[in-house]
Amino acid sequence: MISVEEARKNILSALTPVSTESISLHNASGRVLAEDIQARRTQPPSDMSAMDGYAVKISDLSKIPVTLTVIGEAPAGGSYDATLQSGQAVRIFTGGPVPKGADTIVIQENTSRDGDLVTIEEGTEKGRFIRKAGIDFKEGETGLFSGKTLTPRDIGLLAAMNIPWVTVRRKPVVALLSTGDELVRPGEPVGPNQIISSNALLVAAMVEMAGGIPIDLGIAQDNEQSLRHMAEGAKSADLLVTLGGASVGDHDLVQTVLGKEGLNIDFWRIAMRPGKPLMFGDLNGTPMLGMPGNPVSSVVCSYIFLYPAIDALSGRSPRKTLVSPAILSHDIKENDQREDYQRAKIIGEKDGLPLVELFSNQDSSLLSALSAANCFLKRAPFAPALKKGSQVSIIPLDEGYPRC
Ligand code: AMP
Ligand code: MG
User: Is the CB of 292 under 6 A from ligand 1?
Assistant: First the structure.
């Protein structure tokens, strides 16, 4: 058996970022930049007022109160173009450019106005409430770097830099192929011994959450011809994910059948539970991740292997699964040699940390417990038995795409 970390490293080292595309800033949140971005604008473009008030010379304020003559106005988007002389003030508004000759803004609240005269009633210091030109960024400065996942805040920065379009990585296309004679799609006629295929829809939703585009290739029967034909759908995908048929039973055909089709594969037994059998390889140029069929295994393998793979294809540094501390609400037994991801629920708080309870049945086929869970309790190989109140590690599940 190999470790989770070793398998993850092997997968990541085999993947390279997909090609790029140009998109409008409107659609760019969550996308991965594929270029460094230089500001096309200096912000603010000139010295500007941060408040509503009066632009003055500090040298006129040596005695307070002092009355000055208001000679004009500088609203946001406009300007007062003459030079301010001693004894004068310019009415100014937030975002208005500071007129030549002025060096300080006195806020409106500290003045009283009478016709063309304004009396300054409180002193201030030189430069107060002036935003200097370029204090935010200067034209030509690099604001964001290639590989950055754009947040809504980055979109604001890019807009202010006068960047309407950005070059980003394409969203990687992830083809999902379910396998198994027992499976039918939701809504289709279902025989007495069949089950409804849930994995492809479940993993597709996770792919979308991770910034990929899922395509469902359908359900291959457990025979050579069906599997071969259906896998052809992955030709133009950036990654093929097979679900099920990954083990060593007579009906687990993925490795043998796709092997004949040119699949170059590593088959790993990974020291983790669930998700022990995992395949990774290359099917005629398309990287392939073969995951076991149980729904819980699919979710755990998606968190640990598929999410980082989508990161690598998207050109961003692969995120490690976020692991955070929590407190046990009951005793638990010791662990065996496999890293364990147990379905658990945060039921409260203790000493500022989440209080967690394990589901009593940890069978990896149970979708009801999986849906009710809001975290995995992560246990290291050979972790000892623990008493109620002990500190443990959890992976929160409901916060989109956890990052660390
Ligand atoms: P396998 O990895 O093909 O041996 O499948 C392991 C278990 O997962 C079996 O009980 C399958 O019926 C079940 N399974 C496989 N694929 C799916 C699927 N797409 N949806 C739900 N269960 C599945
Ligand atoms: Mg199967």
Answer: yes
